[in-house]
Specification:
With 353 residues, the protein is of the alpha+beta class. It has four domains: 111 residues, 2-Layer Sandwich (Alpha-Beta Plaits), CATH 3.30.70; 117 residues, no CATH class; 51 residues, no CATH class; 50 residues, no CATH class. Helices cover 61% and strands 9% of the residues. It has a four-stranded antiparallel sheet with strand order 1-2-4-3. Helix 1 crosses helix 3. The longest helix has 35 residues.
Length: 353
């Protein structure tokens, strides 16, 4: 039996061929025996209808078609092995219409694992970074200091305890929304847990510098990601893109809910249906999946591995926070590997220490 394999988009593989009439005829007796067990004809007990009556009852054309379907089903696994096709979803196998006692063309369609091929990723990243407009660090840091200072001032006017320290990265990141001008006074600084105005200003300057550097890193990463995706040859099943878009939709719903807005009201304001939002999210979803695959390919090519000690330390931290190890370890490993790839590509994260 001759077969031919063709690759399609969305990680689909098509295998076409012709099922020989001899193979179908060989399956006919099995098909008849199976039908005999299931049918009941007047004058005969179920399972005891004579074969000639079964054949007459079913009809030659229907019997040939059912036998062909059974024969193809029995051959699918061998055909897939012959072409080294490993499906990730149930395959679809279809027969063309044909006359009894004739060969019948068929097609098997399988969805295989996603893949991304990319070459010259280091040069691609280098060119992408070079194209990123440089930040005016002095101006950006001053804007960041002002934003942090304004939020800090707003916190001093709240009902926070006077001795509450504002020395964590999480708290510092929250100091970015309120209005106001001028440096904080010693009294305001003490309400935030600092010794005096000079101490809080020093802290805010450090955080502003960190924020600007982080922003610069994120701009580089965004440019690199777009360049890599554009250069890579990716083949991704639509079902995976659809699933990722569903995750993004759920994240969107949670974000909207956190703002106190019912999702149905959001849809009305946007003038869109949930399905339309889902469809719009498929493009960023495909990019996310593609970038994950690209990074995995780079890590494989460069033989990048996560540091065992660092991985264990971070996994133990998540476990203490209630995350099961079977979820914590893959997440930490993927995160560490991704950061190593970013570093290789020239976009290392700023240290938070």
């Amino acid at each position: 039996m001759q077969t031919k394999k063709d690759k399609r988009k969305n990680a689909e593989v098509s295998i076409i061929g012709t099922l020989p009439k001899e193979r179908i005829a060989k399956e006919t007796e099995k098909t008849l025996a199976q039908i005999q067990k299931e049918i009941a004809i007047a004058g005969f007990r179920k399972g005891h209808v004579p074969m000639e009556k079964v054949r007459e009852y079913v009809g030659e054309k229907a019997l040939w078609k059912e036998s062909a379907e059974s024969a193809l089903k029995a051959e699918v696994e061998n055909i897939l092995k012959e072409h080294a096709v490993l499906p990730i979803l149930p395959v679809s196998a279809s027969l063309s219409s044909g006359d009894p006692e004739s060969d019948i063309p068929f097609e098997i369609v399988a969805v295989v694992a996603p893949s991304c091929e990319i070459e010259g990723y280091k040069e691609t990243a280098k060119f992408a970074i070079a194209a990123v407009p440089p930040l005016d660090e002095t101006k950006e840091q001053e804007l960041a200091r002002t934003a942090l200072r304004n939020q800090a001032r707003a916190m001093t006017k709240s009902d926070l305890p006077a001795d509450l320290p504002v020395r964590s990265q999480t708290q510092a990141g929250a100091l970015a929304q309120a209005g106001g001008t001028g440096e904080l006074t010693d009294e305001e600084a003490k309400k935030l847990g600092f010794e005096n105005s000079k101490a809080v200003e020093y802290f805010l300057s450090e955080e502003a510098e960190r924020a600007v550097k982080e922003r610069e890193v994120q701009k580089k990463r965004g440019a690199i990601a777009e360049a890599l995706i554009a250069k890579a040859n990716c083949d991704i099943p639509h079902v995976i893109v659809h699933e990722e878009a569903s995750h993004l939709l759920e994240a969107t719903k949670k974000d909207i809910a956190s703002q106190g807005l019912p999702f149905n009201d959001y849809l009305k304001r946007a003038g869109k249906t949930e399905q339309e939002i889902h469809t719009e999210l498929e493009s960023p979803a495909e990019k996310r999946v593609a970038l994950d695959l690209i990074f995995a390919e780079i890590a494989r090519t460069e033989k990048i591995e996560a540091a065992a000690e660092e991985e264990t330390r971070l996994v133990e931290t998540l476990i203490k926070q209630g995350v099961p190890e079977d979820r914590a370890r893959p997440y930490i490993r993927a995160t560490l590997m991704r950061e190593k790839v970013w570093e290789l590509l020239g976009a290392k994260a700023e240290s938070k220490v």
